[in-house]
Specification:
- The structure holds 2 protein chains of 2 kinds.
- Chain A contains 4 helices and no strands.
- By secondary structure, chain A is mainly α.
- By secondary structure, chain B is of the alpha+beta class.
- The chains are: A mainly alpha, B alpha+beta.
- At the A-B interface, helix 4 of A face strand 9 and strand 11 of B.
Chain lengths: 75, 265
């Protein structure tokens, strides 16, 4: 849904690293290099960022669409 | 008993504990994980939540935010944890554009307590959505909930003892080549141990050695500790505090034993 606050396995804080990770990776940087730069060493924490899909963005789009439809029918 | 510091920075410490035993090392490790107190959000009162995440999810996310506390405060609060409570409040509304609510938006009256990072996303809002809440941070220990644990990675391993029988070694270089941690290296006419602390005792060198010339075992009196803090407390403080708690436990135990003996005499 939204990036977890901590690594599921070790409990290290990863939530604050998502936006920088995503920005740099989408600019074409190698995820391995970005993770190393950010000091994310263990593979448990690395998979948290590597495998994450921020679905909340999609849900928010749905929510916006749903709101528009309900407004239309209310009128 | 002897302690040698290997690495130390803001949220991580690595040291060697020499002349001890597994029982002591493990007691120290378990206390660091489960009994060194920290501060974490424990109760959240929602005044308004029109975001797409449920109250429970937001409360859970808030609880997991590590809070930076003054170590002395923790040491003082340890014996009366219920006396301390820090109030946080959050009041955000997305007006014209979508908004990400960050841990940095949490406000508090207590200037000594801050989230470790201000950039942890809590929830995302679209225009019109609102989140108003009050949260109470309390002192607790990791045994009750992992949110109170001051450490993320906290582990030890035995100090490796690597024995190379040079009379049997044929210098094939297999052990050097296959070691996943590059512990060994080849020097002129012998294999040398370059970086013993990196060895994980996987014994793959033993497996690939055709002449049975290398033996790896762990020294169960010497431990390499690796303690990583979540950021709420300095790592050296966590180790010291754990030792202090262990000492107090032993003293309580002795006191109880003494009482029993007195009762029976």
């Amino acid at each position: 849904m939204i990036i977890p606050v901590r690594c599921f396995t070790c409990g290290s804080l990863i939530g604050d690293k998502w936006e920088e990770f995503m920005r740099r990776v989408s600019q074409g940087e190698d995820p391995k290099k970005v993770l190393d730069d950010m000091g994310i060493k263990r593979y448990c924490c690395r998979r948290m960022l590597l495998s994450h899909v921020e679905i909340i963005d999609e849900i928010l789009r749905l929510e916006e669409a749903r709101r528009k439809v309900s407004e239309k029918y209310r009128r | 008993m002897e302690v040698k510091l290997l690495e130390y920075d803001d949220n991580h410490v690595r040291f060697v504990l020499k002349g001890s035993n597994p029982a002591f090392a493990n007691a120290l490790r378990r206390i660091m994980i489960a009994e060194v107190p920290t501060l974490a959000i424990d109760e959240v009162v929602f005044l308004e939540n029109t975001s797409i995440l449920f109250d429970e999810i937001i409360a859970h996310r808030l609880a997991l935010i590590p809070l930076k506390v003054d170590p002395e405060f923790i040491d003082a609060a340890r014996h009366e944890p219920s006396k301390y409570e820090v109030r946080f409040y959050l009041d955000v509304e997305a007006k014209d554009s979508p908004l990400v609510v960050y841990s940095g938006d949490l406000k508090t009256d207590d200037p000594h307590v801050r989230p470790v990072s201000d950039l942890i996303p809590i929830v995302k809002l679209i225009p019109g959505q609102k989140l108003v809440l009050e949260a109470y941070a309390r002192i607790g220990i990791g045994r009750d909930h992992a949110k109170w644990s001051p450490v993320s990675a906290c582990a030890y391993k035995y100090m490796p003892i690597i024995n190379i029988d040079h009379s049997r070694c044929s210098l094939c270089g297999n052990c050097v080549k296959y070691c996943p941690r590059q512990v060994l290296s080849m020097e002129k006419d012998r294999v040398v141990i370059k970086d013993p602390l990196a060895c994980t005792l996987c014994k793959y060198c033993e497996t690939v050695c055709p002449n049975d010339a290398i033996r790896v075992r762990g020294d169960d009196t010497t431990f390499i500790f690796n303690v990583e803090s979540t950021g709420s407390l300095p790592p050296d403080f966590i180790v010291l505090e754990a030792a202090k708690i262990l000492k107090e436990k032993c003293e309580t135990f002795l006191k109880l034993l003494k009482e029993i003996r007195e009762e029976h005499t």
